Structure formats: C-alpha cells, structure tokens
C-alpha cells in the first residue's frame, strides 16, 4: 500500500529499509526470544546501528535529526514484520523527547547519545496503583533534602525497568497539595538504593516485562530533575503525545502483520472448490480491517506531523484520536486474522493467538479507549464531564 501522498520520498525509503530489516528477523525471531526468556538485543543493536532508534533525536547528540514521523515509521514497519520493539515507545520517543526538549546540557550529554545509539535504554513510569487513569491523583512525592531530592511512592505496570538503565519517573512536588497536577520528572538509575521492582505476572508473550515499583525515600541528586519544577505539565505532554503516536504505530504494525498472515493463509487454504479467501464472509472483514488500519495510519501521520511542526495542542487531539483508531483497528484485525485461520488460528505454530492479548494492550495503554473518548467529548466537542 502506497504512502506517497502523505509521506516524503525519504519516508518511503525509510519504510522500505526498515521493512527489509524486519523481514530478516520476523516473527520467528521474536517468538524464539520470548520462549528463551531473552530480549531482542540483536535486533535492537542492529536497528540502532542503522540509525533507526535515534532517528528522532537531535543530530548534535548522535541522533538522526528527524521527528516522531520517522520514529513511528520505524516501529510500524518492525511491527508489520512481526518483530516490534516496544521499548521504542518509551526510550527514544518519550524519554528522548523530554530530555532533548527540556533536559539540561549535562542530562542531554549523559543520555541522548546512548539513547540514540541504543547503548542506553530508559523506561517511563507514570501509572500508580491508586490513581490508574486518573493521573491527577498520583502521589509519588519528591521533597527537598538539602540539595538532594527524596522520592517516595509506588508505580505499576512499568515496562522494561529490568533492562532500562534508568526510569523517568513522574512525581509531584511536595508543596503541590492543591489537587492540581504539578508533575515533575526524575531520572532514577536502575540500581539506586530504595528503588525496588517486582515483576508482574502478565498474560502477554512479549520480551518486555511489566513491573511494580516501590520508591522508598530514594535519594537523588538535584540534577536528577528534568527541566523546570514549575513547568511540569507542559514537559509531560511533550513526552505523552509522542507516546500516543508510537502506540498507534505499534498497533498499526501489529494489525498489518496479522492481516498479511491471514491473507496468505486465505489464498492457500481450500476446503471446498476455491480458497477460503474467495468467500466474501472471509474476504470482506479482512478488506475492512485493511481499510481501518489505513485510516488509522493516516491519523497517525497527521498527529506526527503536527507534533514535529511544534503544534503541541493540535498534536494532542490528533495523537489521542490516532491511538484510539489504531488500537480499535488492531484489535479487530487480529480477531479477524485468528478467525480466518480456523483452528490453526489458535495454534502455537501459526503464532497469531498470542496477538489477541497483545492487541488489547494498545486499547488500554498508555491511556484507555474510554479516557480518549472522554478527552474528545470534553476537549473537542465541549460536552460536560461526569467525573
Ligand atoms: C502491557 C502494559 C504496559 C504498560 N506500560 C506502562 C509503562 O511503561 N509506564 C506506565 O506508566 N504505565 C504503563 N502501563 C499502564 C497503563 O498506562 C495503564 O494500565 C492505563 O493507563 C490504565 O490504567 P489502569 O490499568 O489503572 O486502569 P483503570 O484506570 O483502573 O481503569 C479501569 C477501566 O475503567 C475505565 N475508566 C476509568 N476511568 C474512567 C472514566 N472516567 N470514564 C470512563 N471509563 C473510565 C478505563 O477505561 C478502564 O477500562 C502499561 C500497561 C500495560 C497493560
């Protein structure tokens, strides 16, 4: 499917180059890595060496000087090949963006070259057990102790903390007791005393694991604070919009992978006199899934463009819509793909059944379907709030 109308020649070239890399690894690589309890280090390193992981980061720090448009192309194409790298959503997209835009020169020098060349990875922690979708309720608290910060709180479902060199933790400053969100962001290195993690037993077959975190008076130097203590919300959204665009890319890629597998199968499998794909009951839902994925990608491209052009407000609405559309399209595409394979859809050999759970992730994280519908109801349509 051509993207020439909305993407530049460079983008198209990037798509095909990443697709070629993805093809060399593919789904089998990912399932082997997961079965053996490993991480996709080889793919991560090769993608980094080719400049794909840091494509959005500033050139002066070893990045490609591009934007979220390019980074989302990389993730989508790896996903379409069956080997998405989930940590791209957090490491270069959220953390890299926030540090590049708001970090001090020292933070930029310490982190950006490593995030760009893949030698450093950063996780991102905002979700809390007692706050969930209501991030205004987060209670992870930072208080001053001399020049240091002491950070205390709990986080849940944080991806990749075991492999990340540090986690960018969203807290709030202690004097912000007005009930208004006044987030501040801290870089917490993995082995900092008092920073504990416990793996959550998830029904997901993915190399990236989720963790519950306990921060118990974690002492951090003053330079652990990223950006300005009082400009928290702006800084946070600088990272959250790319996260939504990247989740859309993750979902579109997975949906494309599933539809392609189903189409291949439907062209071959014959139980009457034609391949099953000739029956419209099989073909039409696949065509519909294909259309819906294309539409979701268009919205993703719009959101990425707005973000890269510096329109944070416009990007916020578009990124939410893109994430919503992509997650819904992905869930439907995977469901139809599994169904198309009949019994084989549920076998390990064909590898599609595990995507049923994986596809749901994009519907829940980083912000659930309902919270996006709330956002659009209130922000875009001006409807009153029920909560
Ligand atoms: C695989 C995975 C990876 C993740 N990785 C990370 C990560 O790296 N970092 C991180 O910070 N977080 C991460 N998360 C957390 C994720 O962002 C949260 O799960 C998500 O924001 C939803 O929060 P919750 O699970 O507490 O659900 P809840 O907030 O408890 O919501 C439960 C249900 O109620 C609905 N609901 C809640 N409020 C409303 C409302 N006002 N109106 C209508 N419906 C409502 C929700 O839509 C949902 O269906 C991850 C989650 C998963 C599953």
How would you explain this protein's 3D organization?
There is one protein chain. A hairpin with a 2-residue loop joins strand 2 (141-145) and strand 3 (148-159). Helices cover 51% and strands 14% of the residues. It has 387 residues and is α+β, with helices and mostly antiparallel strands. The chain folds into three domains: 9-121, Acyl-CoA dehydrogenase/oxidase, N-terminal domain (Butyryl-Coa Dehydrogenase, subunit A, domain 1, Orthogonal Bundle); 123-226, Beta Barrel (Butyryl-CoA Dehydrogenase, subunit A, domain 2), CATH 2.40.110; 232-380, Butyryl-CoA Dehydrogenase, subunit A, domain 3, CATH 1.20.140. Helix 1 (9-35) crosses helix 3 (68-80). The longest helix has 37 residues, at 232-268. Bound molecules: flavin-adenine dinucleotide. Its EC number is 1.-.-.-.
Please specify the SSE layout and strand pairing.
Elements: H1 9-35, H2 41-49, H3 68-80, H4 87-102, H5 105-117, E1 122-125, E2 141-145, E3 148-159, E4 166-173, E5 183-189, E6 195-199, E7 210-220, E8 225-226, H6 232-268, H7 280-308, H8 312-340, H9 354-364, H10 369-380
Parallel strand pairs: 1-4, 2-4
Antiparallel strand pairs: 2-3, 3-7, 4-5, 5-8, 6-7
Helix pairs in contact: 1-3, 3-6, 4-5, 4-6, 6-7, 6-8, 7-8, 8-9, 8-10
The structure holds flavin-adenine dinucleotide.
Residues 90, 124-127, 132-133, 157-159, 204, 210, 361, 364-368, 370-371, 374, 387 line the site of flavin-adenine dinucleotide (FAD).
Protein name: Acyl-CoA dehydrogenase family protein
Cofactor: FAD
Keywords: FAD, Flavoprotein, Oxidoreductase
